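Hey team,

Filing this mostly as a record. A colleague (T.K.) asked me to run one chain through the structure pipeline before their review meeting, and I want the input and output archived in the tracker in case anyone asks later how it was produced. No errors, nothing strange. Just documentation.

Input sequence:
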Amino acid sequence: MAGRDIFLVFVSGKPDHEADYARWFCGEHKADMARLPGVLSVHAGQLSALDSLASPAQLCAIYETPDCAGLLQTIAASKGTAALPVSDLQGAMVWRVLECDQADGELTDAPVVIGLFEGEPGAAGATADLLADLPVKAKRITRIGAAQPARGREYPSILLLALQSGADPAAVAETLAGRAGTAAARFLLATPVSAQ
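Output structure:
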């Protein structure tokens, strides 16, 4: 699993078109992205907040690739073509380029808790302690990548945790928040459409 980058996308449909856009994004668009050269896996689904703040978007996609800079070039060259059609129902979108420090298991077809940290969560190098005994079947421990343009306030440390079947996402987020120490954090949940 070494050598993976992640292209993380938060997006919503235009007002009054959210359901139609969600069907396209989690169906046709997900399949088109999966066929692009350099895409190793795709996780797409509904996005919700696990904390008291509003969700930043309606939908989330997690694209894994060995080379995010190369994938961004492929997307730019393919966008609007038969290989990667676009939707005029798309609303606001925010994306991040992440570099994996640790990766194991597959994120596909599982709810994914997304932990966004303003600093290093827990004690330095203690990520194993942070994740100990959590019902996680796959993880990506990431940071903002070099290919990411500056966008103001960032969460430089990001955890992507695919949950085991039956796990309580809110309980996982609460445990992580308690273990993270002083690192300010947000917790989101990306639920694949097939799991809803």
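Quick notes for T.K.: Strands lie at 5-13, 41-49, 59-65, 90-104, 112-117, 136-144, 157-163, 185-192. The longest helix spans residues 18-35.
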